[in-house]
Here is the input.
Amino acid sequence: MILQRIFFVVFFFFFLYLKKIELIAIFIGFLFLIDFKNFLKRSKKVILSIFFFNLGVSIGYIIFSYFKQINPWYYIIYINLKVFLMTYFVFWFFSKVNVVLFFSFSKDLSYLFTMTLSQIYSYKKTLQDFQMAFKSRVVNLKDKEYVFLKNTLKFFFKKAMHDSKEKSLAMKSRGFFEN
Here is the structure.
């Protein structure tokens, strides 16, 4: 496991260090070759997970470059490709490595990670239950989707607030917030 941790850290910081679009594209191509069966599926997940971050950074940089009268396109391509490369690498790496074992070197990290995973799986299961209930009970789905989405988001927001209070109390009782 120590070699996997070293591999991850070395490549993550190496990708962080890359400054040329061409090198970033080469490493994206290399990841494509390594993961060619899952590349499109994993790329879709990566793009969905970084879309709003990249959009915000890109729009901010376009506005900034407009006032500074510089060409923003090289930087926008560079930063978007770099974020894609690094995020894809993380997704690919943790699809090959047991995440819980990877963080097992620290008792606190293992505990936090286990709590996080349990909450993710719980929320995922609840969302699937909501979706199945919605599809089985509503005849005209298009008319009710907005109300369903609004109510589902409202539920998850309340649940997240309640769960975070509960988890922080549990962590506090176990000494996590002591200085």
